[in-house]
Amino acid sequence: MTKALETIGDCALFGYRILREAARPPYELRELARQIVEIGSRSVPLIVSCGLALGIVMSVHTRESMVRFGAASMIPAVLTIAFFRELGPLVTGLLVAGRVGAGIGAELAGMRVTEQIDALETMAVDSFKYLVVTRVAACMIALPILTLMMDFSGLAGGMAAEMVVSNTSPRLYIYRSFGSMDWSDYLPTTFKTIVFGLVIGMISCFLGYNAKNGAAGVGKASTRSVVMSSLTLILINILLVKLTLFFFPGRAS
Amino acid sequence: MSNVAIQLKDVSKAFNGKKVLEKISFDVHAGEVLGLLGRSGTGKSVTLKLIVGLIGSDEGEIFIDEENIQQLERQELMRVRAKIGFLFQNAALFDSISLGKNLEFPLRRAGKSKSEIAEIVRTRLEEVGLEQDANKMPADLSGGMRKRAGLARALVLDPPIILVDEPSSGLDRITAGEIYELLGKLKQQKKTLIVVTHDAMGVRPIADRMCLIDQGKVLVCGPPEELEKDSNDLVRSLVTGGCT
Lengths: 253, 244
Prior knowledge:
The complex is a heterodimer. By secondary structure, chain A is mainly α. Chain A has helices spanning 2-22, 29-40, 44-68, 75-113, 116-122, 127-166, 170-179, 183-209, 214-247. Chain A is 85% helix and 0% strand. The longest helix of chain A is centred in the middle third of the chain and has 40 residues, at 127-166. Chain B is α/β, with parallel strands linked by helices. Chain B has helices spanning 44-51, 74-81, 99-109, 114-127, 143-155, 173-188, 200-203, 224-227, 233-240, and strands at 4-15, 18-29, 33-38, 59-64, 67-68, 84-87, 161-165, 192-197, 209-214, 217-222. A six-stranded mixed sheet of chain B has the order 6-7-8-3-9-10, with helices on both faces. In chain B, helix 3 (99-109) packs across helix 4 (114-127) and helix 4 (114-127) crosses helix 5 (143-155). The radius of gyration of chain B is 18 Å and the shape is globular. The chains are: A mainly alpha, B alpha/beta.
């Protein structure tokens, strides 16, 4: 228990250091751009394919119930609300935690145990800024963009399913999808994924950057990065949903 | 050899309550080669990491070119580190990029132009006999090649001080000899070297002085030929690489 609290405290201090160092030049923009490509672009196929599949599956499941209540025309709106409000941000966060969190944890841990991080330092490179701040910032930038991709691919998947089943035109589907939504449905939920990015980046970097015990430590850092960041993301999502509803009460109705 | 390039004064370091170094003091003059010898676990590598500021000491002072590195802000420490090249025991090459890119990295950070970078990388790789291997990944290099590559990377910015950690570990006698030959060339270029090693016979031809560390303390420092005649059996044993 004491050790767990110590780890949480160390991770919080690590997060504080990230915020402090991020504000100070030099900004390592070249490495940041590389990390955005690595973390963001390379996640696109996974996010888009998952979004499409989820959209189709959600449409199929929802249709049965909605038809029973004579509300088949509501399917686009239900799917869009589900994706934009919750499904998109959370599923994107979890997928990125799996793909990127494990990668960051393993990469930094590997660099730590093979003294590559020490080598960077001896070359007068601030390893924390170069490796940690850039990765966390890249996660924070990439997550909202990937979330929008997930949202729209889900929408496209749902639309494709509806077109096949009920011959709904794309124009009508889109009209019904967004007819009952306003900006408060998109913006807070998309922006909360910046926090998800911070959580994934911070936890994975913390575990990788402070890894010990050789190859075993690398494996441990990788696994723990996924588990800890996914769990924290789910828990913090509860708080963020509550906060969103507090600041945008209209969404609850 | 009048200017002191590196000076340690009563430096102590403990890990988890266990003292690894206890009030060690020595200095290295500019252009001098110091062999730092001792048995495994006596704190030789820790000493190198203290000198470059990778870890902080618990007590004592460390000076690089008369600057106490423990009193420096991080940015200032980075400036001092730019004077030092470090060859790690396992070379610590960045394994996600090619050998050529490993050498380019510090040069790019230092703001060199593309043509300068290409020229320096080519020259350094030639010096260590790896000019044909610039596109190879570190995983594709043998132990000896990795050591030479690590040395080339440590030298790209032409630092006046080179710290070398176990240059011959894991290498056969001939390959280790090639590494010491390269270190000998650095001596001719008037670089200041600290070579941490178990291999007394390997470092002996290039070392101006040797310091022996045992149980976290400096036993003795002096020219190799003097230490060979020391009355302490352990000193003689370490310097001659034999058994007493």
